[in-house]
Amino acid sequence: MTTSTRAARAGLLDAHLTLLAEALLPYRAAEPLLARWGTELAGILVGGGRLLVAGNGGSAAEAQHLTAELVGRLRDERRPLSAIALHAETSALTAIGNDYGYDEVFARQVRAHGRPGDVLLLMSTSGSSGNLLAAVAAAREVGLRCWAFTGPTPNPLADACHEALGVVSPDSQVVQELHLVSTHVLCEYVDRALPTALTALAGQAAATAAASPAPPVDPAGPPVDPPGAADRPVADDGPVRAGVEVVVDPAADGRRGDPA
């Protein structure tokens, strides 16, 4: 009797847990991919890039969970990181859907917010949603890197993205539950990689500053004080004119001094 058959004959909770346990074995192989994505994403985000995320239905909730962990924090205090859930922009979503059709609701936002080097992460249990496929096409035009959390592969979304994490389960609920695990693990790896990414960014900034030539000195310009001049004491050569002069009339002063 297969695991799936046993699950069908059990109670609802046991059946669900059986399907989840069945999916966990192949899912363990996802760790190297999540570790690499987390390291890459940390470097992109501290360098001024951003993460765009989208999904439909339950996957939309999963995607918004991810952006909340990055803009807020997962565990330890750290700087906020730029991550946008495209489906959460409800006015833009409904306006675009009304004017351009539902397949464009994410693609148009990708063209608006995405910059070369940013990352687009899409979540889908089926891997066949038209609006997500359109978003990938727009992202590739703009120059974004495209990742996906999907159900079993191959599927159209996984094929369209640069890389994908596919959960091996026929049950969409199990797929979404492991997408949530993937979200947490990805954020853990981002946090772990942040110190190294920040050190690398500081090193790049220092190297750029050191390589920049000193500004040329204009001979006709005002004289420049030598280094340390501001710290040297000023010689006391007499009174200093302060810009407002008081003139005393000697005659009046004399009269003021005469006896009454």
Show the helix and strand layout.
Blueprint: H1 3-9, H2 12-27, H3 31-46, E1 51-55, H4 58-71, E2 83-85, H5 90-100, H6 107-113, E3 119-123, H7 130-142, E4 145-150, H8 156-160, E5 163-166, H9 172-211, H10 250-257
Parallel strand pairs: 1-2, 1-3, 3-4, 4-5
Question: What descriptive keywords fit this protein?
Answer:
disordered C terminus, alpha/beta, 260 residues
Characterize the structure shown.
It is a single chain. The chain is an alpha/beta fold and 260 residues long. It has helices at residues 3-9, 12-27, 31-46, 58-71, 90-100, 107-113, 130-142, 156-160, 172-211, 250-257; strands at residues 51-55, 83-85, 119-123, 145-150, 163-166. β3 (119-123), α7 (130-142) and β4 (145-150) form a beta-alpha-beta unit. The termini are far apart.
Quick summary:
This protein has ten helices and five strands. It has 260 residues and is α/β, with parallel strands linked by helices.
